[in-house]
Amino acid sequence: MADEDAPHANGNGHEENGHVPEIELIIKASTIDGRRKGACLFCQEYFMDLYLLAELKTISLKVTTVDMQKPPPDFRSNFDANPPPILIDNGMAVLENEKIERHIMKNVPGGYNLFVQDKEVATLIENLYSKLKLMLLKKDDVSINSLLSHLRKINLHLEKKNTRFLTGDTMCCFDCELMPRLQHIRVAGKYFMDFQMPTDLRYLWRYMLHMYQLDAFTQSCPADQDIVNHYKQQQNVKMKKHEELETPTFTTSIPVELDLQQDE
């Protein structure tokens, strides 16, 4: 297992006003090098949630990667067959995604504020990822148009809301859920199908620009190569030798023809 650097998130566990609890998040490592961050959507989602709380100094965050292709003996003995993400709080391991989410909301200092209630947004971002997977499987116009239609609905919501994030001008759990999925759509869609989000989705691009400027996203984001390899494995496509030697790249720019400065 390897510790991931989390600038601004790792502290000494104490602040002037008293003890700050240390939360450890175990995430899947890269399937390419077995050490850096892997392309697990849930791992990145909870990494972002906890990073935001660490920035607010309500917790001290430690992130550990584990190579699930060769898990170390202590991982197997402690967690059996349970895959990451795994949250450890005061020696207690929290397994399963729904339980981790509930634990952050109810037991982690500041977590309650991240989990806003908004049925409209919850419905809006639901099933987006399944449409990406269907598009990569079918590779036909129907699945492409279904994904595009969903992205246009999100763009329309952002236009009407006219805020930096999905529910307002501060991030919440829905942003930590949506943005990793948008990144997978962008990177995997481009690689496998030359799919690109249309530039007329101006408010969606503005949203992504805001996210690309935040440490919570950039520090938790897997490399492009890891996102691509995630889907290669699903399609039983073997990784080529040279891919292990590639310098990791991160797509965090927006199309040059989009001038969003006037929208700031």
UniProtKB/TrEMBL annotation:
<keyword id="KW-0812">Transmembrane</keyword>
<dbReference type="GO" id="GO:0016324">
    <property type="term" value="C:apical plasma membrane"/>
</dbReference>
<dbReference type="GO" id="GO:0005737">
    <property type="term" value="C:cytoplasm"/>
</dbReference>
<feature type="domain" description="CLIC N-terminal">
    <location>
        <begin position="21"/>
        <end position="104"/>
    </location>
</feature>
<dbReference type="InterPro" id="IPR036249">
    <property type="entry name" value="Thioredoxin-like_sf"/>
</dbReference>
<comment type="similarity">
    <text>Belongs to the chloride channel CLIC family.</text>
</comment>
<dbReference type="GO" id="GO:0005254">
    <property type="term" value="F:chloride channel activity"/>
</dbReference>
<dbReference type="InterPro" id="IPR053823">
    <property type="entry name" value="CLIC_N"/>
</dbReference>
<keyword id="KW-1133">Transmembrane helix</keyword>
<dbReference type="InterPro" id="IPR036282">
    <property type="entry name" value="Glutathione-S-Trfase_C_sf"/>
</dbReference>
<dbReference type="Pfam" id="PF22441">
    <property type="entry name" value="CLIC-like_N"/>
</dbReference>
<keyword id="KW-0472">Membrane</keyword>
<protein>
    <recommendedName>
        <fullName>CLIC N-terminal domain-containing protein</fullName>
    </recommendedName>
</protein>
